Amino acid sequence: MRDSARARSLAALHGLALGDALGMPTQSMSRDRIHADHGRIGGLVAAGPHQQIAAGMPAGSVTDDTEQAVLLARLLIDGGGTVRPAAFAAELLAWERAMEARGSLDLLGPSTRAALQRLQDGMPPEEAGRFGATNGAAMRIAPVGIAVPVEPLGEFVDAVAHVSTLTHNTGIGIASAAAVGAAVSAGIDGADTPEALELAVAAAREGGRRGHWVAGGDIAERLAWAVPFLLGLSADEQDDALAEVIGTSVAAQESVVAALALVAVTVESGEATDPDAAWDTLCRAAGLGGDTDTIAAMAGAVLGATGAADWPRTALDTVRRVNALDFERLVDGLLQLRTRHG
After folding, report:
1. Alpha-carbon distance 285 to 290, whole Å?
2. Mean per-residue pLDDT for 321-330?
3. Quick one: three-class SS letters along 242-261?
4. Residue 120's pLDDT is what?
5. CA distance readout (Å), 274 to 54, 211, 298
6. Quick one: pLDDT at residue 167?
7. pLDDT tens-place string over residues 152-167
8. Please, are residues 73 and 330 in contact by the beta-carbon 8 Å criterion?
9. Which of 112, 120, 136, 142 is the Cys-Cys partner for 301 at CB 3.0 to 4.6 Å?
10. Which candidate, 9, 19, 6, 7, places its Cα nearest to that of 181?
């Protein structure tokens, strides 16, 4: 069981980084512009001529999704499972300064930046994130899924809320992070993808009861609706619906639902029997337009954790080399925390 949990934990972080790198050159672009610049995304490519956020980045480069997940993993390990808000805020600000020094426009998201500004202005940490309803908490939550068992569910959502409220202390923000984190955590314990996604909906429902209320679609209800809706469509129609009906923006009720729904239809349609299906799903996510790197990263984390992915070795080696990623030590530290929770 320990070997299986470690393999799935590594596959989750590998999937997150691969999805992130696939979506790097297409993030914040329209589907038409992506197609004109790159055609169908079938592998790792460098940023193209119209990519402004990640301008000039080579193929295989990751973005804030992977880098902030690594940051959170390190804080969890160093803190013995506890992340102090002040330390988290300092690390996030230091990360953004480092990105600015590199000339990158890939900076803190709108909810995180606003929350940290409120914190600097003297607002208490529990109030700083009271308007955060974007996908920033969900994109970096995979390490919590590795470190904390999903059962009991209420305690798991408590752990998600603990690391999310600084920047995303809303029902939508916590529910979206709980959904992604629960799917990862269930997979680490051996759940297959459908089982993990059922727990994702349950966790989203529980998470939606936490934090401050903000207007927006309910994460659990949108997840429960999106999958059967998509299954009734052809693959091309599904992509249209993901982009135009569900949505692919940074709003959590769009991009988080899109990522998990895309994972679900891949598995439920029978495509998961194809060894390349998980990789193809991430490539598909990278071509949807909008917040492609985050959608593909979240989908990759879930597919990896649930044993539905056999990531291509060449692509994985490229991403690890280009970004100097060493996930093994992080996974071992996170699994030690999981054992302690157990």
Report:
1. 10
2. 96
3. HHHHHCCCCEHHHHHHHHHH
4. 87
5. 32, 40, 20
6. 96
7. 999 999 999 999 999 9
8. yes
9. 142
10. 9
SS3 assignment, position 53: coil
pLDDT averaged over the chain?
94
Maximum CA pair distance of the chain? 53
pLDDT tens per residue across span 199-253: 999 999 999 999 999 999 999 999 999 999 999 899 999 999 999 999 999 999 9
Helix ranges, 62-124 (H)? 64-78, 85-101, 110-120
Instruction: Supply the pLDDT for residue 270.
Output: 61
Residue with tokens 């649930």: 306
CA 4 to chain centre: 22
Considering the entire predicted model, what is its pTM?
A: 0.96
Provide DSSP, 163-203: HHHHHH-BHHHHHHHHHHHHHHHHHHTT--HHHHHHHHHHH
Alpha-carbon gap, residue 231 to 211, rounded angstroms: 32
What is the structure's pLDDT at 102?
A: 73
**% helix / strand / coil in the chain, to the nearest 5?**
70, 0, 30
* 105 three-state secondary structure: coil
State yes or no: cis peptide before 25, omega within 30 of 0: no
Token couple for 41: 């995304």
* Angstrom distance (rounded) from CA 188 to CA 148: 10
Q: Amino acid identity of 338?
A: R
